[in-house]
Specification:
Elements: H1 3-32, H2 45-54, H3 68-90, H4 93-98, H5 101-143
Helix pairs in contact: 1-2, 1-5, 2-3, 3-5
Length: 145
């Protein structure tokens, strides 16, 4: 992925993540802290977490096209970075010190599911765009034969 493509991907990913993170926060919050109530400052947390979740996209930067193996290795590295960064940022030090496994595992699984869902949505959008372009190219070729 080159510079401009990387920037576009990061912007697209950021906005998808904000939406999904808000959903995950609602689900995990109702599960682990159902009586909590928050002020308006809570609205900025998905925005901040999405920045941290988007930063590891830099791993995908390459000057030339990546091989399938390079691509998969970089995606795994990206996922590991996202998991580590978001867990470290999202969970208070007290939770990590107490090693509250249920919360940490739930957050880790949620991060993985958001990662997977983001990539599935991105793949679907790219697939439909490529399919439409192919159909338009075939129509164009038929008109100019």
């Amino acid at each position: 992925m080159r510079g401009k493509e990387l920037l576009n991907d990061m912007i697209f990913t950021y906005f998808m993540l904000v939406t999904m993170i808000a959903g995950v926060m609602a689900v995990l919050g109702m599960r682990f802290i159902p009586d909590a109530s928050f002020g308006y400052e809570a609205f900025r947390m998905p925005l901040i977490y999405a920045v941290y979740g988007t930063l590891p996209n830099v791993v995908m930067y390459a000057r030339q096209e990546l091989t399938r193996k390079q691509f998969l290795v970089r995606k795994v590295i990206q996922l590991i970075l996202i998991e580590g960064i978001v867990i470290a940022v999202a969970l208070p030090a007290q939770v990590l010190k107490e090693k509250n496994a249920e919360i940490i595992v739930s957050l880790g699984i949620s991060i993985f599911l958001v990662f997977l869902l983001t990539h599935l949505i991105e793949w679907f959008l790219n697939y439909t765009s490529a399919k439409q372009m192919t159909e338009e190219l075939l129509i164009f070729q038929q008109k100019h034969e």
